Amino acid sequence: MKNLTIKSLGLFGNPTKRQLPPASETISRLCKAAGVAVRASEDLRGALKGDITFLPNEELINEVDVVIAFGGDGTMLRAARVLGQSGVPLLGVNLGSLGYLTDVPIEELATAITDLLAGDFHLDARSRVYCSVWRDGEKIASSSALNDLVVNMGPLPRAIDMELFMDQDSLGRFLGDGIIISTPTGSTAYNLSAGGPICQSTVPCLLVAPICPHSLGMRPLIVADDTEIELILHETGEGAVLTADGQKTHVLADGDRLSFKEAHQEVVLVKFPHSSFYRVMRHKLNWGGPRRRIGEES
Questions:
Q1: β-strand partners of 205
Q2: Any residues with CB less than 8 A from the CB of 234 and at least 6 apart, and which?
Q3: Which of 154, 158, 209, 155 lies closest to 179 in space, CA to CA?
Q4: Cβ atoms < 10 Å from Cβ of 134
Q5: Which of 107, 115, 133, 229 can pair with 120 through a Cys bridge, CB separation 3.0 to 4.6 Å?
C-alpha cells in the first residue's frame, strides 16, 4: 500500500501502564518539532500531560492520519475494533509482555516515531474473519475479528457436539472443547496454542483448529480464503459462546449454524523497513530455542 502524509497522530492505549506518560511526552516533543498535531482518546485523559487534545474514539479516528496503540496485543485488538472500517493505519507500541502485534518495543519508540514522521515506513493491510450466526433460518448475530473467532463453552468445562462443513461438504461430526477460526495474523495467537500452524500474514487463507477434539481424525486445517466454512452445533448444553478476539461474545444454543468467511474489512498496520515476520517469530516466540555458542560443550 502507498504511504501517506502525516499531519496528526492519535494516541490510544491502556491508561494504567506506567510507561505511557513518558512515551506520550516523547511523541509530543517529536511531533511539535515536525509540526504534527497530537490527539488522544478520551480514555487517556488524566493519564497524559502536555499539549494534547482529547477526543471520543469516534471523533478521534476522523481527526488523525495514524493511530498509535500503547499496550499489549489486547490493546492492539481493541484499537482495531475501534478503527472499524475507517482505514486509518495503526501502529503498535509494546508495553506488555509478548506483544506479537505490537512489534515496536518501547525502547525503540523515539526511532520509530522519527521514521514515521519522515515517511520511512510502509502500510500492511491485514484481513479479518467474519461470522454470521443463524437460528431457525434467521440471522441473529454477527461479528468480525483481526485474530480469531472462537466457539467454546466459556468457563464451563464441557465438550460441544459439532459438525464442520467446508464448501457444503461435511468433514464429520465430532465432540470437542470448541473450534478456532483464525486469520493468518491470528495464527500465532490461540490457534498456535491449540496446535495449529503458524502462517505468514500475506497468505490468502483461513485457519481452522479444533480445540481438544475427542477424535484423532480432526486435525487443524489451512483453507483458501474464499472457502465457505460452516459449523452446526448439535448439542452444547448451556453456556456455549462465540468470542471475537477474546473480547466480544455472543451466546449460542443447540441447532445454531455459524457461517465463517474472510471479511472485506482490512486493518492497516504501520510497518518499518526492518520489520520482518521471521524476525518477530525469532524474538517473540523464541523460534529455534536457545542457541549454543560455537565451541561450547553440550
A1: 224
A2: 161, 162, 163, 173, 254, 255
A3: 209
A4: 17
A5: 115
d(CA 263, CA 270): 20
Residue 97 carries which DSSP code? Answer: S
Compute the distance between CA of residue 147 and CA of residue 245 in angstroms, rounded to an integer. Answer: 6
Task: Give Cα 174 distance to the centre of its chain.
Answer: 28
Q: Are 20 and 48 in contact (CB under 8 A)?
A: yes
pLDDT score recorded for residue 46: 87
Cα–Cα dist 201/198, whole Å? 9
Q: CA dist 157 to 136, 149, 152, 248, 255, Å? A: 27, 19, 9, 20, 20
Closest CA to 254 of 131, 151, 135, 170: 135
pLDDT digits (tens, 9 = 90+) for 127-143: 999 999 999 999 999 99
pLDDT of residue 102: 84
In sequence order, what are the residues at sequence separation of 6 or more whose Cβ sits closer than 8 angstroms to the Cβ of residue 92?
68, 69, 73, 75, 76, 79, 99, 101, 102, 103, 104, 269
What's the CA gap between 36 and 221, in Å, rounded?
46
User: In the structure, what pLDDT confidence band is assigned to residue 282 with cuts at 50, 70 and 90?
Assistant: confident
Would you name the residues annotated as active-site residues? 73
In this structure, the dihedral spanned by the alpha carbons of residues 47, 49, 52 and 58, taken in order and rounded to 10 degrees, is 10
Domains of the chain: residue spans and CATH: 8-121+272-284 (3.40.50.10330), 128-264 (2.60.200.30)
Cell numbers at 37, concatenated: 498535531
Q: Is 2 helix (H, G, I), strand (E, B) or coil?
A: coil
Beta bridge partners of 149: 181, 244
